[in-house]
Structure formats: C-alpha cells, structure tokens
Write a structure and sequence with these properties.
Layout lengths: L11 E4 L2 E2 L4 E7 L2 E5 L10 E6 L2 E7 L7 H5 L6 E7 L11 E9 L14 E7 L2 E5 L4
Antiparallel strand pairs: 1-2, 1-7, 3-6, 4-5, 6-9, 7-8, 8-9, 8-10
C-alpha cells in the first residue's frame, strides 16, 4: 500500500497575521462536521447526515511577552474571532502541502502564566469554531 508521510515540523503557524511558528511546539487541528441523526421508523441501524462544521485547533506555545510574541498577540483576541493559518511543511503550497486556514476562530480563554522551576513556560491555547479551507495555490 502506497502512502506519503511527513515529519511534523510546520513551516507556518500564523494567528491574526502574526507568525508564531518559532514559539509553537505543538498543534492539533480537528476539522469536523456535527453528526445529525436522521434515523427513521423501520430502520435497524442509526444513520446520520453532516451538520455544521465544529472545528477546533489547540496549540502549545512557549510563553513570551514581548511585542509580537505569544501573549501580546493572543491577549487582545480573547473573546473575539480571528484567522489562523498552518502549513505542514516547507515548500510551495500544493495538494500535498496545503495551507490549512481557519477563518472566524473564537478564542475563549488565554492562560497568562504557567511555570515550574527549571522548565520553559508553555501554555495550551484552544480556538473553536470558524470555517475551514485549504489553500493549495502557489503565491
């Protein structure tokens, strides 16, 4: 069985037009559509149809407070929506390296401090909702 794999090392993590790639250590992007049950009388198994998109993306960031860094970028976004872009690897956008775009993603909360002695401070940040698309065109 043929397949293609890649080493997880995103070439772009952009939030609200700010590149935070060098401060991000993890990203999980879940694209989903809610399952709406449409089972009718007489059927012997439940059936479903696609409902609304219910997207979610969670990042682990190294916490930094300078202008253009994590805190300064994300703090004004709490309670608002924004656009997020992630590109899986370096190189031009293509069908095998699409930029994943989440438009209208909502940020409900921002951890402002998380620290332990002798460790780098990281925070997990989750965006919810929004509309997913993929850009496969070379700029």
């Amino acid at each position: 069985m043929a397949g293609t794999t890649y080493l997880a090392n995103p070439a772009l993590v952009e939030i609200n037009s700010v590149d935070l790639t060098d401060l991000c250590s993890s990203a999980t992007y879940t694209y989903q559509k809610e399952a709406l049950e449409n089972t009718a009388f007489g059927q012997t198994a439940r059936t479903f149809v696609a409902g609304l998109e219910n997207n979610e993306i969670t990042f682990t960031f190294f916490l930094a407070y300078a202008t253009g860094d994590v805190y300064a970028t994300l703090q004004p976004l709490v309670g608002t929506t924004t656009t997020i872009k992630i590109k899986p690897s370096t190189g031009n956008e293509s069908a095998t390296n699409p930029i994943q775009i989440l438009t209208g993603a909502y940020l409900a909360a921002l951890p402002v401090f998380n620290g332990s002695v002798g460790e780098l401070s990281t925070v997990d940040v989750t965006f919810q909702g929004g509309t997913w698309s993929a850009d496969t065109t070379n700029p």
